[in-house]
Amino acid sequence: MKIKIINKSEHALPEYKTADAAGMDLVANIEETIVLNSLERTLVPTGLYLEIPKGYEAQVRPRSGLALKKGVTCLNAPGTIDADYRGEVGVILANLSNEPFEIKNGDRIAQLVIAKHETVEWELVSKLSDSERGAGGFGSTGRNN
């Protein structure tokens, strides 16, 4: 699949690091280091602009290593970039640790995954079919009581 992209950053285009990788790293495109204090959040620009084909979305997801090692994650994860959006790709980062975290130009800050999606047409009904689970939710599966 080909996706049109404008790169206004000084960094390379996102790329898959292994043959079976689902995500590509997004990097910070900033002029000055950002210090993200404990429990703060910020929008980090990437300098990238996408034209995603209809029927697809780009998902912005946390980097697992950043989340585990530094407590920094993406809010609104996965963040959806719709096919009709033409603005700059930004990453909402939050620092869930107790320590300040520095974001420098070129730092890998998130993953970008391209995913197909369906568009639904609602069918209004008065009853839904029965299922084994029924209306049980929020931890109800796998319990015997």
TrEMBL record:
Residues holding substrate: 63-65, 76, 80-82
SUPFAM superfamilies: dUTPase-like
Xref: Pfam families: dUTPase
Protein's pathway: Pyrimidine metabolism; dUMP biosynthesis; dUMP from dCTP (dUTP route): step 2/2
Known EC number: 3.6.1.23
dUTPase-like domain location: 12-142
Single GO biological process annotation from the record: dUMP biosynthetic process
Gene3D superfamilies hit by this protein: 2.70.40.10
A GO molecular-function annotation: dUTP diphosphatase activity
Keyword Acetylation listed: no
Alphabetic keyword roster: Hydrolase, Magnesium, Metal-binding, Nucleotide metabolism
Enzyme class: hydrolase
Enzymatic reactions: dUTP + H2O = dUMP + diphosphate + H(+)
Cofactor: Mg(2+)
Origin: domain of life: Bacteria
Family that this chain belongs to: Belongs to the dUTPase family.
Database matches in PANTHER family: DEOXYURIDINE 5'-TRIPHOSPHATE NUCLEOTIDOHYDROLASE
Record function comment: This enzyme is involved in nucleotide metabolism: it produces dUMP, the immediate precursor of thymidine nucleotides and it decreases the intracellular concentration of dUTP so that uracil cannot be incorporated into DNA.
Record HAMAP family: dUTPase_bact
Record-given protein name: Deoxyuridine 5'-triphosphate nucleotidohydrolase
UniProt organism field: Profundicola chukchiensis
Lineage: Bacteria, Pseudomonadati, Bacteroidota, Flavobacteriia, Flavobacteriales
